[in-house]
Each structure stands twice: as structure tokens, then as C-alpha cells.
Amino acid sequence: MTLDRELANDYLYFLAEELAAEAYKSDSIIPLEKKLIIREQHNFILSGSDRILDAVPEKEDLDLAFFATPDILETVLKPGTPSGAIILHTLFSQIGNSRLLEEVSSDQFEIIGTPESLGRGGSLVVHKQYDSQQQTFFIQWQVKGIHYDQAASTTTADIFIDIAEDQQSVHKQVKYLISSINMPIQQHIYTNLPEKSSLHQQNPYHLLVLHHRTHEVVMTLQTLEALGFTIDAFIGIPYGESNWPTMRMLDYVSSQSYRCLRMIQHPIEPTQYRFDFKQSSFLLSADEALFTDLYNDSNVNRDYMSAMTTLVETELVRSVQRCLQEKTKFLIYEDGGYAIPLIYQIYNDSSHPWHSLFKQAVDERIIVGAVEVTGAGERRDLAAIESNQGKALLPVLSTARDDIKTIFEAKGVSQAIIDSTSTALGRLGLPTFETRKVAVIGGNGAIGTRLVEELTEMQNSTSNVFAIDIVDHAFYREIDSERFPYAAIKVDYLNLGRYVVEDNCLPVIIDLSFGNRSLHLYNQTLEKSVREFFSPSSPYASFTELVFTNSFPHPDISLEMLWQELDRLNQLWDSIRQESGYVAEKMEFLPNGQGMIQFFSNGNLSKKVTLLVSEQVLSFKKVTRLIQNHVDTIIGMTGLPVFDEYDINAFLTRNNNENPVDELVLVSGSSKDYEFKKAIAFLDELLAVLSEKTIDIQQQLTGYTRCYEQQMCFIADDDMDMIRQVLASGKTPDALVAQLKQYPELLKISGLKDAQPDTWASGFAAWIRGKIKSSLSIRKSIHQDIGTIYHIQFNGQSKRLVLLADGFVINFFAKHEKGVKTEYIDPIVTMQLLGLVKLATTETAIEPGVYRMAQQIKTEDINLFWQALDDKSRPIQF
């Protein structure tokens, strides 16, 4: 019986037929994916005594990804000798096989593989005979992420299969995709780089690159390789998932050294972070085992920074060991301050297993320095120096505070945040920014200022856009408008003013279209609000300032008109004096033409009314008050954990304003998961309490103590003060029992009066848990490429907390998002590249410390960035 006939009823025959029928869907970049589940042991591909996984499961659950152009896949599977089924049979017989097949026909097949990768990776050359001609095909396979789940008795893995005409053609489309990336500034810098020839002749530098998974980073990796740098590893920042084209390009340009993590979300459990074998470049069995073991540790996988730090440490150690062995040098190219603080930590920790290695590498200048791009990363690097008694170990060149980033890239980042957020909200069926009330935390920073401007233009008003910041003015920086007139226009600011609203200030928003300056001081809203503010029975008695937006003419109004307007106000002030006893005293104009303040007194009491010109943004020190007043969207831009459980409490306790569901959307535009980290941890703790999950008594008591100390709304009742006193002194089970003995009334209320004391701690914790569950319920839903929604019921009110991108920066999260657009990123990553060249070629070593990049590279190179933007911004001439 021929093999074709034996395979006639085999799963591989049907797989070949299915692939042939769907060949038109295939692509060499985005694969044709198939799920293959095998239950018969004799058909197992990866599992068994003679296979690469020495285990016998009940089934294999394999994800196949076929990379091939439609014509190639169709041709390799169409009738001929060998048949498509035999080709797949031969291929899968070798995949997972720990030895080379000996029984294959040498005139039809050639198997190529190395002993260390055999079974996991290799190539199959197929010589296929058609009626009158022979055609050769090259098939390359990689087995990734082999895992045997003993509990489920299942082997899982991803198998990548590339099919092309020859070995060179496997990456043909990937190379074409890379060549289409348009980064004119980087191309110009590379072409004209004076140090290029010397780096080509001798470049002893190895690189660890930690950056976003974008087209611009792909091109930069290729440029670095062209300059002779050796890329030991590229670690992709895992905000969400990356798409197939990006994955394929990064794998290629990093010389198969791409490493990445993935998020694993659960409706109750906190998010976990695991090594992403599918996304990462192919690994040999020892490395797969290493990363599997590392990320099985809950101390590593339960926190984003611990998971990333573990990966960075692993690759740092390998690179440093390699450089010491080869007597070469090492540089770090990063985004976010992952590696440098870790080097300081290990350098100063004599008990760390890699302390001696890192100390030698730093002291002997094997590690030469690093380049950084973010403000958050720069802060982390500076904090590392501070923790080392102010002594820097390495030079770090940072673009975080350079003009090209703070002035120009900030526009691109703000646009990307708006675009990505609008897409995510649209996919949820929710309104986008035109009708939202938005608070920007960090709204007076470099990016926050641009974001406030973009939102104002979208809404055609400042009325529903608010800044949250400890700084009282918007960011502003100029470029040379004489040298770069068109670029200066392109990056000019709207110059929206800021007015800081203190806790004792009551703001009244008078809406006005953006750019409208034809204001009148007196109107009915103003009169009504002023009378309520000064009324003896006013609900606003605790406030000492009343501020009106869009209520004062701009300085360009004529004095005659201004006095006419003020005369009408004086009549109102006189009426207030008669009604409330408050006398209008001095009037002051605000600086920079922002408006005026009218002061009032009544004996020892004083109040003031402030009138602002148009185009002023109200600025607050904390976001909590805005939440209480029904802001529905918060964008965090600080890179710091500024949103916490108090803000969640404010959301829960505000009324629904007659809406069936009260909604708050949280968006991060800053580095890592810092912005909403405290709130996420708090919600995870509540989810555990509200579920039937068993929680350690000590852990429960710690959490409940914090809730009662903070007087959270869901434990607020007549017993709250008494319970808070007990928990404050009874922070362990034994201490709690001792404390409860002094509160017989509480024992009675909690139903523990007749219970044995050794059950009091668990019974008391269960009683509090029941209290929380009686007023609060939370359900967490996970939305692919969008984020997480917390569906909350509190005291009969329905609420929805929408956490876009799961708290990570929104513009890199979804597979279809690429982050900030290329024209904004090209100069930034190129400036980092120039920083690496500076560190690698400088004759005089740069002293350890953190430096602005612009202070270390040539002025003409900085000007080149602005000149390129100026040229692109020049108007067309008719």
C-alpha cells in the first residue's frame, strides 16, 4: 500500500485539502492560522518517548501558523509527487523529532537542522515533480512555547511554518515591509554621519535595546546594525499585543533576539505577566525552560515592573558575560528606565548573585552608558543616583527634556492618545471626546498642555476640559522663529491660560465658543450665582471665592466699553451689600490680562468674585473634586500613581444624575502602569473580597483596617467608628481577639457573643466581608484590544468604570494601534541613535550622570531636525 493511500483518511490529508482550499487567504507576513488537536498517541507531533517532549498527554493542542504567499502555498499542495499530504506527513514527522528522519526519499526531501535545535527548528527542502517539470520549495519551521499541562493532560505549542521558493525568499516580504518605512530624518543622519566609516571599520559595542514595538524602532534597529552595533537582545515593551507584521519585522531586524512578555487577565484574579513565546524570537529548549521557570514564580508574574525587571536582568547578565568574555563594550538603548536602576541596585547589593559581575562591568567600564527617552525613565535614573548617595555610576544621555520632544513630539503623543481613545470608546459603543467632560492629570506638563489644546479645539470650548497639576501654569517653550519660521507656526501653542481652583473656590462655568472674545460682564447666570453665593442661607457658605469663566472682556476692549460694563456690576455689588452686608472694596486686575477680582468684606469675613477672560482652563491640584462633580473622563499624563482609592470612593458616592448607569473612563497616556496602579490594586482586592475566594485572615484584616481608616463608603454605617477602633489595635488575629474582649456590644452585633474566642478572628472578618457584599458588587469584564470594565452596583446605583488599555498607555495597546505617528517619532529615536554614537565614539569619556541629549550632540544635528520640520511645513506656492 502506498503512503498516499495510507494517508487517505489521515488528519494530515484533510489538513492539506483545507490549506489548499484556503490558500488565497495566506500571506508571508500575516499567516494562515489553523488549530490542530490530536488525540491519538501514535499521531502526536511533539509528545512521546522519541519526541522532544518526553510526556504522553491525552491530547496535543497545537496552533499552526503558515507563512506563504497564496501562489506558493497553492502550488506546494496541488497534485504532484510528493503529494501535499505526504509533504505535511514528512514535515510533521520531523517536527518534534529528536533525531533526523532516515526513511525519507532523498530525491524528494532534504532535512536541514542542527543537533541543538533538532525537532524544535529546522528546514525541509522539497523537490516536487509535476507532469513535466520539477519545482523546489523551502519549508522552515519553529516550535515555540512547548508546554505540558499535567492537570489537563494536554501539550500546547505554537508552530510557525514558512514556505518559500528558497531560503532567501523566506524573509523577502519582511525586508520589503521594512524598506517601505519612511523615516527621512534618520536616513539623512545616517547618510551624513561622520562617524559612520570608523564604526564600520571597528565597532566593539554590544547593545541591549528596550523600546516600543513600532515601525520606527524596527528601522532604528536596522540602522544600528548597519553602523556595526551588535544587538544582543531587543526587549519589546508589552503594552497590550503586537500585530503580525511588527512581530515579523522585529524578529528579523533583531537577528532573532526579540523578547517579549504577555498579559494574562482573569475576571477575579490580578493580571499576570508571562513570557510570550509566540511573540518572541525562537528559543532553544534550555532558554524556553529558563523563561518558563522564571515566570511561574508569583513574585515575578503578578506585577508589571517585577516581570519586566526579571526579563531585563536575564538579558543584561547574558550581555555582560559575553562582553567580558569577548573583551568588548556594552551600551543600553532604552525607553522607560528599566535597565539603569537595576544596574545600580545589583551594584550596591553585595548579597545579589550577580553583584560581582555587575561591579566588575561598571568599574572596568565594560558598561559604557545608556540613552533614555522618557521623563519617567529619567526620573528613575536620577532616583538610582540619589539612592547611591548621589554618586552616578554611568553616563545617561536623555532626550526627555529636549525641545524636539517637549515641543514637537508632545503634539504627536496627544493626538495619538485622542485617536486611540476614540477608537477604543467607539468599539465599546460609547461617545468620544466631543461630548465628554475631561480632566487631564498632568495637564500643565509638556504633553498635558498639548492634550488640553487638542481637546479644546475638538470641543470648540474650554468649558469641559480641566487640568490637574501641582504646577499653576501651562508648559511653554519657543523655537527660533527667525531660523525656522514655518516650523514655529506648526508647533505654536494656543496659549490657553490657567486659573487654579482652590478648595475654598466655587467655579461657575459660562460656556463660550473657542475664539469668541465679544464678552459682556453682566448676564443672568452671573447675577443668579452671585446672589446665591452671598445669601445668608447659601449652601455655599464654606466657599470664600466665586470664579466665573468666560465672563470678562479681553484687554483689547475699549476703556469706555469696559467702564460701561463695570458700572452694571457696581449696581449688582450695591444690591449684594443691601441683601447680605458684604461691601465691595478694592478691585484688582489679574496678571497677564486674565481678568479681574472684586474683593468683599463683612466685618471679619471676606470673600471675592473673580471674572476670567475667555480661553482660560480651570486647574485643580487633585482630581477628586472633579470626580464628585461628574467629570466622566480622566486622562493621566504624570507617570506617577496619582489616582487612588479615594478617587474610586468619590466615584462610588456621587449620584447618578438620573442616568441609569454612571460611567467614568480612565485613560493613561504615560509610561508603564503607574497612573492608575493604586486604584487597580484596590479594585483587585475588592474583587477577591466579593468573590467566594478564600483569603488569608491576616490579609483580610490588613485590607479591612485600611478601608476603615480611609472611611470608604461601602463600610460606612453606624458601626464604622467602633470597628475602626478595634481594627486599629487588632492588626493580627491574636490582637484582634484581645481587642474584641473589650467590646462586648460589637461581639453581640457581629454574632460572635456565643462563639469560641479561637473563632472570633475568622468570624469577625467574615462579618465585615458580609457587610461589604451587602452594599457593593463588582463584575470585571475583559475586552480584547480595548481594556477592562468594572461593572459596579453600590447601594442600588449602577456604575461602570472603564479602564482603557488596562491602565497602560493607550496609544500602544491595541494590535491595530502603532503609537505615535512616524513623523513625530523619527527625530526622537534618531536623537537616541546619535546619543549611542556619541557614547561609542567620544575620545573623552563622558562623566557619569544624567545629561540632556542636546548638550552632548552637535548643535547642527539638533538644527537638522527643526530644518526638516520647517521644510515639510512650508506652504505650497501656486
Describe this structure in words.
The protein is an alpha/beta fold and 878 residues long. It has 30 helices and 29 strands. It has a nine-stranded mixed beta sheet with strand order 17-23-16-15-24-25-28-27-26, with helices on both faces. It has a seven-stranded parallel beta sheet with strand order 9-8-7-12-13-14-29, sandwiched between helices. The protein has a six-stranded mixed beta sheet with strand order 1-2-6-5-4-3. Helix 19 (524-534) links the parallel strand 18 and strand 19. Helix 8 (215-226) runs parallel beside helix 29 and helix 24 (697-709) packs across helix 28. The longest helix is centred in the middle third of the chain and has 25 residues, at 403-427. 44% of the residues are buried.
Give the end-to-end Cα distance, rounded to a whole number of Å. 79 Å
Instruction: Trace the largest sheet across and list its strands.
Output: 17-23-16-15-24-25-28-27-26
Q: Unreliable stretches, pLDDT < 50, 5 or more residues?
A: none
Amount of beta strand: 15-25%
pLDDT averaged over residues: 92
Percent helix range:
25-40%
Number of strands: 29
Instruction: Give a short account of the largest sheet.
Output: 9 strands, mixed
Computed Rg: 32 Å
Number of helices: 30
Structural class: alpha/beta
User: Shape, please?
Assistant: globular
Pick out its properties.
878 residues; 29 strands; single chain; alpha/beta
Concise account of the structure shown:
It contains 30 helices and 29 strands.
How do the strands and helices of this protein lay out in sequence?
Blueprint: H1 3-6, H2 11-21, E1 32-38, E2 59-67, H3 70-77, H4 84-94, E3 109-112, E4 121-129, E5 134-149, E6 154-164, H5 172-179, H6 184-191, H7 196-201, E7 205-211, H8 215-226, E8 230-236, H9 244-253, E9 258-259, E10 261-264, E11 272-275, H10 285-294, H11 298-301, H12 304-326, E12 329-334, H13 339-348, H14 355-363, E13 367-372, H15 375-387, E14 395-398, H16 403-427, E15 438-441, H17 446-459, E16 465-468, H18 485-490, E17 497-500, E18 505-508, H19 524-534, E19 545-548, H20 559-580, E20 583-589, E21 595-602, E22 605-612, E23 616-620, H21 624-628, E24 633-636, H22 645-653, E25 661-668, H23 677-690, H24 697-709, H25 720-729, H26 733-740, H27 744-749, H28 760-775, E26 776-783, E27 787-794, E28 797-804, H29 822-841, E29 849-852, H30 859-873
Parallel strand pairs: 2-6, 7-8, 7-12, 8-9, 12-13, 13-14, 14-29, 15-16, 15-24, 16-23, 17-23, 18-19, 19-22, 24-25, 25-28
Antiparallel strand pairs: 1-2, 3-4, 4-5, 5-6, 10-11, 20-21, 21-22, 26-27, 27-28
